[in-house]
Specification:
It is elongated, with a radius of gyration of 29 Å. The strands form three sheets. It has a six-stranded mixed beta sheet with strand order 5-4-1-3-2-13, with helices on both faces. The chain is built from 25 helices and 15 strands. It is α/β, with parallel strands linked by helices.
Amino acid sequence: MAATPGFLTNWPWKPLGNFKHVVLVPWVVKSVYNFITMDVNTRDSTTILIFLLLLTRMLHNQIWISFSRYKTAKGQNRIVDKNIEFEQVDRERNWDDQIILTGLLYYLVNYYFEGAQHLPIWRLDGVTIIIVLHAGPVEFLYYWFHRALHHHFLYNRYHSHHHSSIVTEPITSVIHPFAEHIVYFALFAIPLMTVVLCGKASMATIAGYVMYIDAMNNMGHCNFEFIPKSLFVMFPPLKYIMYTPTYHSLHHTQFRTNYSLFMPFYDYIHGTMDKSTDMLYEKSLKQKEESPHVVHLTHLTTPKVIYHMRLGFASLASKPHTSSKWYLWILSPITFLCMLITRVYGKTFVIERNVFKDLKLQTWTIPKYRTQYLMQGQRQTINGLIEDAILDAEAKGVKVLTLGLLNQREEFNNSGELFIRRNPKLKVKLVDGSSLVVAVVVNNIPRGTTQVVFRGNFNKIACYLALALCQKGIQVAVSREKDCETLKSKLNSVNDHDKLSISHVYSHKTWLVGEGLTKEEQMKASKGTIIIPYSQFPPKKVRKDCVYYTTPSMLTPKYLENVDSCENWLPRRVLSAWRIAGILHGLEDWKVNECGEEVFNIDKIWEASIRHGFSPS
């Protein structure tokens, strides 16, 4: 929102919320109905083109968003090395409003103007008119309108909303108040309406010009430079008629320079070209891929998780992924295509970049789904991908790599020990985060608790968690005699043996649960039972009268920057204990591995987490 919102700031369909697209439904239905029912010789295929153009624009913009986030996360050719936070994501979530507006106006023009009906596929004279009118009146009028928007009166009421984003993303290009968009549409309508009124319009002319505007807008706000210098060397005048991402990025950081739309010609004429444009352009081209200090290695969970990832839909990624949205079934073909791509591509990729004080963090993703981790035949392939990622991190000088989700599965690689044995000279330290997970769960147990019971799979974390509780004087019950004997053998004091017991009843008020907790077990729990998971994945909630805790996690301090997405099902600015453990190892420079049967000092890592500003979530 602008500093002092002016007249026509809000979009007319804002009250409709997520159902705003229904304003297009009557036009889409009418165009499809007419196309199907009317005679082949009389029906107007242009109406179908409008609908397809709107869908294409949505896809085109989303591709820019995903690619830009991928490139800036890697750091190569990044222009502005600053951070994006949730506030900006929330402000820019309605980027498709302008597509709805243009869609309505396209349908109106097609309905009322004969020159916009029954368009041919191609007309060269129409293309020529579009080019001339854009380079002339459109660029000229936009330049002076843009300068006017930077006058304090209009800036405070309208344009400051757009400039709230210092670090831009492709969708930043269309984040303006409704009133601004009306003017922009009027400007871009000059060449479009001219060819319509002159009878020179064609499908290629209309669609091509609209896609050109979208492409240039997205390019100018993508925050990474990719226009090769050789283009300007071979054709020097190009710098006057085509801008670069660097050029417009400076407008967002300097405010009073680089006003032109897509052609910097008028900035050169009127002396508003930023003097550092060329220098920043060359610097950005030379910017190398960033080498992080700490890497968190995770993996895909479900096929639809691609929409909830940071590289997917920004609005979904900024919210906890507790369930898939009903409308995602429409994208099933894209979901299936992405599954094929991940299967063929089969290489770890970067999805997120964060900064904690002076520590550079990245999140890498293995292109495998949770179901594949449960398949015996996938074990060797997945371990190979994990090992390749570890060796890649080693080559980049990474200090710590944490194994997230099922990448540390004991049945797969014994919590990462397999990779240490295969590569004994590794400098990068592998951390499975067990110590902090134990510390978080211990501190999540309500004060005054005297007994707990373990349910689900009993693993390394459960073992050390039970030992820690016994040492605190809490009665621990397990369901299998084998697990009880294992715990007794690891207890330092024989006096603590009486803290262990085998139980097959469900009356305990505090449950510590791992993977494999069944619905039947939950149904047997007494009312008010507190269920605290120590597993990577949360149990499915089947009881409304029980209290379910989230998976081990902590709230992050303000020092953690560039946080604009949620980690799976966790709330905003809450990270899993496994991921935080790697950050702490990097901050404290603990040069030790935590994998296999090894567990770091539980009290020491908990004290470090509190000291660095993390708090129980």
